[in-house]
From TrEMBL:
Entry's Gene Ontology molecular function annotations: ATP hydrolysis activity
Pfam families: T2SSE
Family: Belongs to the GSP E family.
InterPro entries attached to this UniProt entry: AAA+_ATPase (IPR003593), P-loop_NTPase (IPR027417), T2SS/T4SS_dom (IPR001482), T4SS_GSP_E_ATPase (IPR050921)
Protein name per UniProt: AAA+ ATPase domain-containing protein
Amino acid sequence: HIKVGAPPAYRIDGDLVKLKGLSVTQEIAKQLIYPLLSDKNLSKFQSAYSVDCSYRLSSLQFRINVFKENDGICAAIRALSLDIPKIEQIGFPNDVWEDIIERKQGLVLLTGITGAGKSTTIASLIDRISEKTACRIITLEDPIEYIFQQKYSLISQREVGRDAGSFIEGLRALLREDPDVVFVGEMRDPETIAMTLMAAETGHLVFSTLHTRDATGTITRILDYFPSGRQHEVQNQLSLGLAYIIAQKLIPK
């Protein structure tokens, strides 16, 4: 974490630890953060006052959120290894992930708080599918986190803001691109949720994420996105298309 008026801080097993030393000034914050942004993302930040992006350095990929607040510019930066962990290392039962990767259609939802490892679990599942199945995989992310290697499957990764105007625009196009497996980075609004459910109903294996703490809360959250007149329709879509809700929580070492 970089914040004007405070020393840089980082998390160890979920706890925030401040570095010893001088507080960050506005000028130092700009010197640290601006080189991480492309010209397009810097322009977006200067006009919208916040931006999500990624940055690659050597063997690490960083997910970055830059925003303005009362004291000036701030950034939250998460480091991700470029190596996608094997699904056996993730920590949920073999019979669950083995069933998921064998599926030909349905919606698999990973839920949990920010930083719970949802994207890592999905990346591990998709990577295993790519190793064993000759299929077409298309992801729609904001931003792209893990970079998949071409294996037995054919994989395309699209980033919102760079390769698609929005999640909903990208989804509409994606369904015309002959995918077998789809990853929608996050279901953020009613339109994206409806299109994601439709994709799961129409013969695609679809992965996505939602910020909820448990399976019951996930169903409630999805329905709450829609007016009461549409909730019965969405319930029917869920009954037909939903395969798994996996509520994930990281346990401190």
